[in-house]
């Protein structure tokens, strides 16, 4: 059951990384607008959106496959945890009771906290991640 649960976490978080990557690849303007609005204008160059999107798609795919886990899991965790930190107000006050207001609150950001936690759980329980491609390839040595 642990291996299946970790596979589910890998697939779901990897797909999330890939989804955000595809958005950046297909619409650099959308990536720039999101960066300007929520991430303090970090990575606002349209020229950076496509390479960053491609990188996210590759990381997401490798996480789904469980490939190069020593590197890809922490990279994905950094991406999602930094993303969650950048929207901390939305995570601490999803209902707009004290940090935000009716116009600025957005409950749809709250799952970012869950995705960040899921990526950390994948790392914490990597030894039980036996359905990964890394594990399958190492058994063939």
In short:
This protein is mainly α.
* Overall pLDDT metric: 89
- Which structural class do the helices and strands define? mainly alpha
Gyration radius (Cα, Å) is: 16 Å
**Helix-residue proportion:** over 70%
Notes on the structure:
The protein has 141 residues and is mostly helical. The chain has one domain. The protein has seven helices and no strands. The two termini are 26 Å apart. The mean pLDDT is 89.
Helices and strands, with pairings:
Blueprint: H1 2-26, H2 28-38, H3 46-65, H4 69-86, H5 88-92, H6 111-124, H7 133-139
Helix pairs in contact: 1-2, 1-3, 1-6, 2-3, 3-4, 4-6
Keywords:
141 residues; 71% helix; mainly alpha; 7 helices
